[in-house]
């Protein structure tokens, strides 16, 4: 971020490398915390939803603060100055890393790293072959990939003076900051009202609500809100708030389910793998959304077919409902995979559990090595 803020004419390749390095740093810190949450979710399964709700609450508060000041700082000090300011949260993350208490491993041999990697890879592959794992992973990917991301087109429409409401950049940032309250409300609603519902039932209603909420964008671009006397600014804030709330409600059960799919001993590695699958889904959504915008010839100044892009997006948002059979209908407070047994417990190997024997032995071997 400092490199971007100091060099005005930085080469495009170097700028992309700097942004990639910054994103990698954020991803590493995020996965580290996710690993802690996944590990504690296995140790305390009844608190898995609570921990994910706490993470979502913290993320929503951060988004609220970030969106609130982003437009103001871009106007006051410009984009390069904002890149410089981004070093402050990076420094705070480094500080948290120093303060995070973690026991050191004594007499650790770095020669075991390769063997640990091989053992962990075997355990991950064995876990992924389980129907309880690959089926919900496939649903997560498809659910995210089919939700086309056309935010770039909507942003330019927001700021267009001819066809759109002609919002300033500061106004758009402020709108997104207010809509972050919707994400905050979604996390609170999940924590206090929805966390005990079965994954499949909750995903059905949240996905349906997510698809229907997208119709508000269609009302907006067709300017129907003005016919009912609702100002653009008020309606956009309402639309974005509802959208952020439904996204959060849709995302929360996926996070809880992902934390329960992680085998004991390689929680961080496996959770990172699951999150990478989700990130590929988001990337696919952005590519597909950009392709749709390109095909419909929607540009920074031309928005004749933006209503059609919204309609296609909303229809695709509903399609994951046909694939809900991939998600297990289980109690969110129970395990999807068997946890690591305590030393004084006995493993009851019944006929219905024989398919998990190989997984348990591999995971335990990884635990012994790590």
Automatic annotation (TrEMBL):
InterPro entries: BT1, MFS_trans_sf. It comes from the Eukaryota. Its main location: membrane. Residues 1-25 form the signal peptide. The keyword Transport applies. The keyword Secreted does not apply. It holds the Pfam family BT1. It is a multi-pass membrane protein. Keywords: Membrane, Signal, Transmembrane, Transmembrane helix, Transport. The chain crosses the membrane at residues 53-74, 81-100, 138-159, 171-190, 202-221, 233-251, 271-293, 305-327. It is found in: Membrane. Belongs to the major facilitator superfamily. Folate-biopterin transporter (TC 2.A.71) family. This is Folate-biopterin transporter 2. It comes from Pisum sativum (Garden pea).
């Amino acid at each position: 971020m400092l490199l971007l803020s100091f060099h005005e004419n930085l080469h495009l390749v170097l700028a992309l490398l700097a942004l990639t390095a910054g994103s990698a740093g954020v991803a590493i810190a995020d996965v580290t915390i996710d690993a802690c949450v996944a590990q504690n979710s296995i140790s305390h399964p009844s608190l898995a939803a609570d921990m994910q709700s706490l993470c979502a609450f913290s993320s929503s508060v951060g988004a609220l603060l970030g969106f609130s000041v982003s437009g103001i700082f871009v106007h006051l000090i410009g984009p390069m100055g904002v890149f410089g300011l981004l070093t402050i949260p990076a420094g705070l993350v480094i500080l948290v890393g120093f303060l995070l208490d973690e026991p050191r491993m004594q007499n650790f041999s770095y020669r075991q790293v390769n063997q640990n990697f091989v053992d962990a890879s075997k355990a991950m592959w064995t876990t992924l072959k389980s129907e309880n794992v690959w089926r919900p992973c496939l649903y997560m990917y498809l659910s995210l990939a089919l939700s086309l991301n056309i935010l770039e087109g909507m942003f330019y429409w927001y700021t267009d003076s001819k066809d759109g409401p002609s919002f300033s950049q500061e106004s758009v940032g402020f709108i997104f900051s207010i809509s972050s309250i919707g994400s905050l409300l979604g996390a609170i609603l999940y924590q206090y009202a929805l966390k005990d519902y079965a994954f499949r039932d909750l995903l059905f209603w949240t996905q349906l609500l997510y698809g229907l909420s997208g119709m508000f964008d269609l009302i907006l671009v067709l300017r129907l809100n003005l016919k009912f006397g609702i100002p653009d600014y008020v309606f956009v804030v309402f639309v974005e708030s509802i959208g952020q709330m439904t996204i959060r409600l849709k995302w929360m059960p996926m996070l809880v389910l992902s934390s329960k799919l992680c085998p004991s001993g390689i929680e961080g590695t496996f959770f990172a793998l699951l999150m990478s699958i989700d990130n590929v889904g988001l990337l696919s959504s952005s590519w597909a959304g950009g392709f749709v915008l390109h095909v419909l010839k929607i540009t920074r100044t031309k928005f004749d077919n933006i209503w059609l892009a919204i309609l296609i997006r909303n229809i695709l948002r509903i399609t994951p409902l046909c694939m809900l059979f991939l998600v297990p209908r289980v109690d969110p407070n129970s395990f999807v995979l068997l946890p690591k047994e305590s030393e004084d417990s006995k493993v009851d190997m019944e006929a219905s559990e024989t398919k998990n024997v190989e997984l348990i032995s591999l995971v335990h071997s990884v635990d012994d090595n790590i």
